Amino acid sequence: MTTAATLARLDAIDPSARRPANGGFSWTFLSVELKRLFRNSTVIVFTLIFPIVMLVLIGIPNKDQAITDVPVAQGGLSAAVPIMISMAVYGAMMASTMTGVSVAAERTQGWSRQLRLTPLNPVVYILVKVLCGLVLGGIAVVVTLIIGTSLGITAPLGNLLLAGVLAWLSSLMMTSLGLAVGYAFPAQNAMRYLGPILPILSFMGGLFYPLYLMPEGLQIAAKFTPVWGIADLSQSAIIGVAPDPWAIPNLLIWFVLFTGFAVMMFRRDTKRV
């Protein structure tokens, strides 16, 4: 075959035909990522076991203490109810964050580089990570609420469902934080930074300790932290009161900031390939 004929055949090839459908997304790819995630014992401990242990240690001793004028024995809400949803939020946050930060280990192992040499769309790669975080986060919320209910920590079903959905969806913001840290730092440093940061943010946001018991200055400062919006929305929903007007703006602002940081770190990382 002459050179001219070869070039003609190459010109006849439609480049779009080589692009995978849906940017490379497939249920097989998603299932593989989920299996890899569930094989990580650290993820399981911090997203499923740790919140339940904390619920038993903190929630059960407060189960008979009412947060309203109506005693718990007469149908009043228990002080353990907001603790239960707080632990569910923490589990969902950890699931989302650790799913995102797993890219750091994949970068070290060369897996991310291999994927970028394929036709897989980078957006699809991020989307799969987000979906994995949602799946694990949803499991963390459901398991925590079921365990809490079985231990006698009850709330109206509508409140429970709404709070669970809010805890699940709002924790998606933390996937962006995990991705940003995962692309910004090596694997050995990523969780070293996030490990102490998440509990501190959770404490300051009112997940581990009621804000109304904190000094006024800390209560004001809490409204500027990333976890406060998630905590206020879910806790308000489960006890049946209106959330703070600034809870949703807090959640959206931090989501935009974390997502922007994740995109910036992703672009910086891909430039090195």
Quick structural gist:
This protein is mostly helical and 273 residues long. The chain has helices at 3-12, 27-38, 41-59, 80-109, 111-116, 122-150, 157-170, 173-184, 187-205, 216-222, 226-239, 247-270. The longest helix has 30 residues, at 80-109.
List the helices and strands and how they pair.
Layout: H1 3-12, H2 27-38, H3 41-59, H4 80-109, H5 111-116, H6 122-150, H7 157-170, H8 173-184, H9 187-205, H10 216-222, H11 226-239, H12 247-270
Helix pairs in contact: 2-6, 3-4, 3-6, 4-6, 4-7, 4-8, 4-9, 4-11, 6-7, 7-11, 8-9, 8-12, 9-11, 11-12
Whole-number count of domains: 1
For the secondary structure, the number of strands is: 0
- Structural class estimated from helices and strands: mainly alpha
User: Helical amount among residues, as a percent range?
Assistant: over 70%
Overall body shape: elongated
What's the order of the H and E elements? HHHHHHHHHHHH
Strand content: under 5%
User: Could you tell me how far the N terminus lies from the C terminus, measured between alpha carbons in angstroms?
Assistant: 36 Å
- On the 0 to 100 scale, the average pLDDT is 82
Number of helices: 12
Rg estimate, integer Å:
22 Å
Report what the structure shows.
The chain is an all-alpha fold and 273 residues long. The protein has one domain. It is 72% helix and 0% strand. It has twelve helices and no strands. The protein has helices at residues 3-12, 27-38, 41-59, 80-109, 111-116, 122-150, 157-170, 173-184, 187-205, 216-222, 226-239, 247-270. The longest helix is centred in the middle third of the chain and has 30 residues, at 80-109. The model is unreliable at 10-16 (pLDDT under 50).
